[in-house]
Write a structure and sequence with these properties.
Distance between the termini: 32 Å
Shape: globular
Strand content: under 5%
Number of strands: 0
Number of domains: 1
Length: 416
């Protein structure tokens, strides 16, 4: 596998996922306006939280260890049996908790008990979502980017059909419901594609507790849960703060610009996850690691700079295309957000070194510190600059995170 081939298939898969996400945003913007887009962001944050918790947060661990053990059948079988056991146990626990507190979650996130049934459906769907995450992680670990892209493209197409159909019938509720159903329906594509792969073995569907492998996965679980849980939780807190200070319409503007960033950065973050995580995990010589990181910067930084510049120049057209004329006020927020995006990608490349080399304690501490610092900066900057202060906070926080990751990488690679 090389970066160009990976980039080609990643681009196809990411474009499909991006198109699906933009359909959802566009529909919600049409029939619910900025307030609806703000609530869409809240629900998607909840889905991100539960999706990670459903699988025990071990997807990155599966990718890393499958990449390492793929030529060792015995260790690979032990790993995957333990991973499936871990993921399904975690999804059962998470689903039960979400069912138990469905009313409170609906009121807290969306301010309306009408969405309680939606939270219950999401809770039941956790088993299916956990299995989808497991399958995609195994395929990714084998660096089978073509098959991974195939599953993601067809899964996204299924999701678009669901969104269009259910949103016309149930409006905002239907769009949110389609997000849940679409994730589970990915199994319809993922399972057959995986079964037909040359590396599939029936033993990969066995569940068994294995102390050594579970301990290894648990370390990744802590790291992944930290990195995956903190951003949605912090974003929920940021939305609630912005809503309290400026109202839900202003939250919709902030959410719109954030979604545009998420959309175009999806191409780059997916490439980092699909290519660089297994590559760094399977590379043990520090000189080779340094070369891989330099290669990442040569490919990714020019790409993110160009994309950010294009989005800034076309921001008015992008806002009208993806949302509606009601979101024109969001155009003033793009500048600092796009600068932050460039710094974010620069920091992400280095942060994956901590994931690939299982620097659990350092990774967890850094994620917690910078999550809290982002929230603190939002409170500080919005008090002085208004809504755009949230974008300033985003850029400054990632600049601090980049400095931290440079220090970590230089120390690990022995360049200091």
């Amino acid at each position: 596998m090389n970066f160009v081939r990976t980039g080609f298939y990643t681009t196809i898969a990411t474009a499909a996922r991006l198109a699906a996400g933009l359909v959802v945003i566009k529909l919600v913007a049409w029939f619910a306006g900025p307030e609806g887009v703000g609530k869409l962001g809240q629900f998607m944050s909840l889905m991100s939280l539960l999706a990670v918790l459903a699988g025990g947060g071990i997807s990155a661990g599966i990718v890393k260890y499958v990449a390492e053990y793929r030529h060792d059948a015995q260790r690979l079988s032990r790993l995957l049996s333990a991973a499936l056991w871990y993921a399904l146990c975690a999804s059962c626990l998470m689903g039960c908790a979400a069912l138990l507190f469905s009313r409170q979650i609906a009121l807290w996130l969306l301010g309306d008990s009408h969405y309680e049934s939606l939270i219950r459906i999401l809770a039941v769907a956790q088993l299916g979502i956990a299995l989808v995450n497991y399958i995609l992680a195994v395929i990714n670990g084998f660096m089978d980017v073509r098959r991974l892209a195939f599953v993601q493209v067809l899964g996204s197409a299924t999701g678009v059909v669901m969104v269009v159909g259910l949103s016309r019938w149930l409006h905002l509720y239907g769009a949110l419901l389609a997000l849940v159903v679409g994730q589970v329906l990915t199994l319809v594509v993922g399972l057959p594609a995986w079964w037909r792969s040359p590396y599939f073995r029936r033993s990969m569907l066995r569940m068994r507790f294995d102390r050594e492998m579970t301990t290894r996965l648990a370390a990744f679980s802590v790291m992944t849960l930290t990195s995956a849980l903190l951003p949605p939780l912090i974003n929920i807190a940021v939305r609630n703060h912005l809503a309290l200070q400026f109202g839900w319409e202003q939250v919709g503007y902030w959410q719109a610009v954030s979604k545009v960033s998420d959309a175009y950065l999806l191409f780059l973050t997916t490439a980092i996850n699909i290519y660089y995580l297994p590559k760094l995990a399977s590379t043990h010589e520090r000189a080779s690691l340094a070369l891989e990181l330099r290669s990442a910067y040569r490919h990714l930084l020019p790409a993110v700079i160009v994309l950010a510049a294009v989005v800034y120049v076309l921001r008015n057209w992008v806002t009208h295309l993806l949302f509606s004329a009601d979101f024109t006020a969001a155009n003033a927020l793009y500048g600092p957000q796009l600068i932050g995006d460039v710094v974010k990608i620069a920091s992400f490349v280095l942060s994956y070194l901590m994931l690939a080399k299982a620097m659990t304690r350092l990774f967890v501490i850094s994620e917690c510190v910078f999550a809290v610092s982002y929230l603190a900066l939002v409170y500080l900057f919005t008090a002085y600059f208004g809504l755009v202060g949230a974008m300033y906070a985003f850029a400054v926080n990632y600049l601090l995170y980049l400095v931290f990751n440079v220090l970590v990488a230089r120390r690990y690679l022995g360049e200091t």
